[in-house]
Design a protein that fits this description.
Elements (H helix, E strand, L loop, with lengths): L21 H11 L6 H18 L1 H18 L8 H34 L20 H8 L3 H38 L1 H43 L3 H13 L1 H17 L1 H6 L3 E4 L4 E8 L2 E9 L1 H12 L4 E3 L1 H10 L11 H10 L2 H8 L1
Parallel strand pairs: 1-4
Antiparallel strand pairs: 1-2, 2-3
Helix pairs in contact: 2-4, 2-7, 3-4, 6-7
């Protein structure tokens, strides 16, 4: 019988040899709600907090259970078995005992999901009906569940969970059995029940810590599988570059980020500018020569323009008042733009007024 190579089912078999880009990962998260996530890790974290709550709240739980039993024993003889009070009191105690665990479990589950998802994900794609799923692809299902690393890992994971929890419980019960039998004969049933609770707490702690390790391992495997599924072919990489290069939204975002960065550096840009052109107080545009033409390195209106004038004066940057030029440059250019050709002539006159070329020759 020939052996099955698990590498047959890797992404490389489909020509996907390139690591997924940040753009593709972000698109998968924001538009499709797809992120590497482990339900095993979520469940083990919730269980860990629940177990510690049970241990810390043990005396309170015991007291409430005693109150319930005392109520039943005090009223069972004098009341009918179908008395509605018994059901009402039972559900009252049931709600009181379970509400804290439900609240904590829900909060921890939400926080755990937020951490794995890296924040909230708003998408309706996950709840949209998929009619192609009505007819299952048996071959693809068997390939994923039986002849893949993920399938093998799930089998090993399940066997490990059952084996380790059962074995640890067996060892702890066997070790403490003689002490339990002694307590039943010498300490009475109440002390024996306390001891049983202690052993049960030990079993829960050991099991939960092991399940947490399994959850971490499962998350790493899920992340590996997710990256494997998101890998791209060389053609997909090329198409994505073309898409991003021609996508107006991406371009606008990049330009907006660049303008924001330049605006944040406005004081420095004004101090390093060749000239500040003003309107005189409504608009201000800072220019700095870049290779063959001036570039707009800062601009502002009203209070920002006044602030730019103040910075320019402190830094001894020439200030030229030209109402039409200042308004035109402010309207027709963005931060980081080289000035349009229509302004070359008038800007060259401004540079001549401040003696820029002579200064440049003297400094060179």
């Amino acid at each position: 019988m020939s052996q099955i190579d698990l590498q047959w089912f890797s992404a490389e078999d489909e020509g996907k040899t390139e690591q997924p880009s940040e753009y593709k990962l972000r698109k998968a998260r924001d538009e499709e709600g797809r992120v590497p996530k482990s339900q095993e890790l979520n469940g083990s974290i919730i269980l860990l907090f629940i177990v510690f709550m049970i241990i810390l709240m043990g005396p309170w739980i015991e007291r409430k259970m005693k109150e319930l039993l005392i109520f039943y024993f005090n009223n069972i003889i004098s009341s009918r078995i179908d008395d509605k009070r018994f059901a009402v009191v039972f559900f009252q105690y049931f709600i009181i005992l379970t509400i804290p665990f439900c609240i904590v479990g829900s909060i921890i589950g939400i926080v755990s999901n937020l951490i794995q998802n890296k924040g909230f994900i708003y998408t309706t794609k996950l709840i949209m009906p998929k009619f192609d799923k009505l007819i299952p692809n048996i071959g693809k299902y068997l390939k994923r569940t039986m002849f893949s690393f993920e399938g093998a890992f799930n089998v090993v994971k399940s066997l490990l969970k059952v084996s380790v929890i059962a074995f640890s419980a067996y060892l702890l019960i066997r070790y403490n059995m003689k002490y339990l039998l002694e307590m039943i004969h010498t300490g009475g049933p109440e002390l024996a029940l306390h001891f049983v609770g202690k052993v049960a707490a030990q079993i829960m702690i050991v099991s939960t810590m092991f399940l947490l390790l399994i959850g971490v391992a499962d998350y790493l495997v899920q992340k590996r599988q997710f990256i494997e599924e998101m890998k791209m072919t060389k053609q997909e990489v090329k198409e994505e570059f073309k898409e991003m290069d021609g996508d107006p939204e991406v371009k606008n975002r990049l330009e907006a980020a660049q303008r924001e960065l330049l605006q944040q550096n406005m004081p420095k840009a004004v101090r390093e500018a060749d000239v500040l052109i003003t309107n005189p107080t409504h608009f201000a545009v800072a220019l700095q020569w870049q290779k063959e033409a001036p570039q707009v390195t800062a601009k502002g209106e009203d209070m920002t323009a006044l602030n730019m004038r103040r910075i320019a004066k402190e830094a001894d940057v020439p200030i030229v008042e030209n109402r039409s030029l200042a308004r035109g440059l402010y309207t027709d250019t963005k931060l980081g733009d080289i000035i349009p050709e229509a302004y070359y002539k008038v800007v060259s006159i401004v540079y001549a007024q401040i003696g820029y070329m002579e200064k440049k020759k003297r400094n060179s």
